[in-house]
Amino acid sequence: MFWNNGITKKNEHRLFLLVAVMLSAMILPSIPLHPSLPNIRLEEFLLFGIFGLNVLSFLKNGFKFKEEEKVALVSQKKELKRIILIFILLTVSYFISNIYGVYIRKAGYYGMRDLMELVTLFKYFLIISLTLSIDIREAEFDFLSKAFLSGIAFLVVFGWGQHLNILNMNTWFSPYFDQQHWEHLIVGNPARVLGTFDNPNFFGIFTVITLSYLTVRYFFGEDRDKFPWKLFVMIGLVIKLEFLTISRTALFGIALLFALSSISAFLYHKRNKKVVIKIVALFLLTMVLFTTASADFFYRLHEGLDFSTSTSFQGHMDRWGAAVGSIWESPVFGWGTQKYVMTTLVDNEYALYARRYGFVGLGVYLVFFLMPFILGLKNLKSRIDAWGIGAAFDRPAQLVGAYAAVLPSIFVFNFMAGIFYNLQLMTIFAISMGVVYNSLKCDSEQA
Description:
74% of the residues lie in helices and 0% in strands. By secondary structure, the chain is mainly α. The chain has one domain (2-446).
């Protein structure tokens, strides 16, 4: 049992559920139920199923919490209030925009596909609140880390299997994944690895999220004066995995992540010789992997940078132009979800969200991402003030630092695609948000 390894019994079931959700989002495709219904993911079945059982248990106990549940809620009170407030704002924005779009703008009608937006919001709330509810101490963090690294190891092997088409696996596995994007591996020119995701660009930005944790640990963790070779090798494997996706946006995301992390480490460690060696080593590793990348990688990179002939760039501009025209016709509250009368293919999540919920809703959307970022940086600053400059980051500080380091790359990615509406990728990022809130909770308890 988990608690025999230092994990408390009250944490066991929630920790197991969180790991199951995380690994499901990392390594499993969605499950088709019926041609007329959207696919469902295993983590959604788990989250909503366990939530339903908890509601039934609450009703059975006469609308009363157990004593240990009351204690847990008190410890989460401050952060839980913030999370609930953000989701209330998202939900209110949703209802106002849909009522405005359907009944005032007469833009269409409200249907099942529009209702699924609320289900999506509730899924993210469940993930973040689940992560917050766990007491992530050393034993729990160690278990989560090992589970995450196991998932990464699987994806590295699986990604290389796709790249080399070992045992003709790309044909054998294709029925279980999105057919349109799986063709990137079979008839794509160039062929692009997409891991277990339904799009190589989403797999690419997943590697950036992964690198944020590895890089912060690499620069700010406690390595006992030794060069962290294991982390260095793992970083190299994940960088190479991104190169196999040939995602240009994710490549820029890695460059931005490494630049911000290296500058921060250089200043934080007072230009220390050890950190200079780490920065140079990371730069050389990246350059070696970059210069030894495939001809297909450089072909697609060149194609994307030639804006006059890039079909990708021109397609993005056409979609942005159409979306911006719709936004200016209803800039305050937008048009609502309106999935039946407006395309969801915009390739810019800010434009897509503003078209649906107006600039008011877009503001709430930005708060959703920025709240843990701002609170996390304040928390990190107070920790550094207490430790003194140059001290190694503890576990909560590393987790907060990883989220702060990767958010700029996520914001860039959202200009070219978007994370919020990808249920698989956003599940992983919602866990990252929950981990930041959890770190704030841990500090509150210690105070």
